[in-house]
Amino acid sequence: MILLSFGAYQRSSWLCPWSQTAAGDAVAWLKWLPARPGRHILGDTLPALGPALLVAGVIVALLLRNLQRTSRQLQAERAEAHHRALHDPLTGLGDGALFDERQADALKTLPPGPSRLALHCLDLDSFKPVNDTLGHKAGDEFAIIQPGISGPDWPADLANCNIAAIRQPFRLQGSRVQIGISIGIATAPDNASTDVDLMVRADSALYQAKAGGRNRCRFFSQACPGAGGPADLNQRLQTAFVARGAA
User: Are the C-beta atoms of 219 and 207 separated by less than 8 Å?
Assistant: First the structure.
């Protein structure tokens, strides 16, 4: 006798007793498995799909590497262009635009109290004959921003160190060269509170240093502000034009 009553459903298949004894014990089972065409499709396509996925992965990895390389190159070129825009091509020092930016930031964050910042205007002495003789077309005016000073001797110490270093002779294209440097110093906030005034006063002190014999440093002084110097004359002309409404 064959009994076909459905039993438990396990894993998408039907399992039922196919034959039983008189006592009701199962002697055979009938198991039905549903058709799964997807397995056959995967079995047929996986051998070809594996290499294709591997090739696609390699292509994606190469594209990502090229993109990263291009991105790094663009960042390096952008940084180099930014550096060239703010630095002198001959010396590698910051140019006027970078100087103005740094000086404005230093004055903006200047803490209260006595002199906390010094501006050094430097002019190389006897440098024009070097340019004329050796053919160098280089400027000979520089400036140093010295923030965070906490003593009146700090600016003078830095200036004297620079004077001593510049005075050391060196050889240039087989010739022995020795030059000097004059330095004018103005401090903030006691001498000036704006970048323009600070530069004018440091330049006036530089004029006094050069007029006093060169190869030395001078501090700006209200008692002797460098009357007659180029910066002082320019400042007075600007003030006069503004007062007459011509500026």
Answer: no
Q: Is 112 helix (H, G, I), strand (E, B) or coil?
A: coil
Same-domain check for residues 21 and 136: no
- Give yes or no: residues 108 and 200 share one domain: yes
Q: Please indicate, yes or no, if residue 232 is contained in any of the structural domains.
A: yes
Distances in Å between the Cα of 42 and the Cα atoms of 53, 56, 93, 201 are 14, 19, 67, 85
Contact by Cβ (8 Å): 12, 5: no
Instruction: Determine the Cα angle at 34 with ends 33 and 40, to 5°.
Output: 105
Q: Are residues 105 and 204 in the same domain?
A: yes
Q: What's the pTM?
A: 0.58
CATH number, domain containing residue 206? 3.30.70.270
Mean pLDDT by 10 residues, the chain (247 residues): 43 52 62 64 66 83 90 87 76 80 86 81 74 53 87 90 90 84 92 88 90 88 58 54 50
Q: Considering the domain boundaries, does residue 158 fall inside one?
A: yes
**Separation of first and last alpha carbons in the chain:** 121
Count how many domains the chain has. 2
Distance, CA of 56 to CA of 226 (rounded, Å): 75
Domain that holds residue 14: 1-34
In what helix (H) or strand (E) does residue 147 lie, and over which residues does it extend? strand 141-147
Dihedral sign of CA atoms 61, 67, 68, 70 in order = positive
The Cα angle at residue 166 between residues 126 and 133, in degrees rounded to 5 = 35
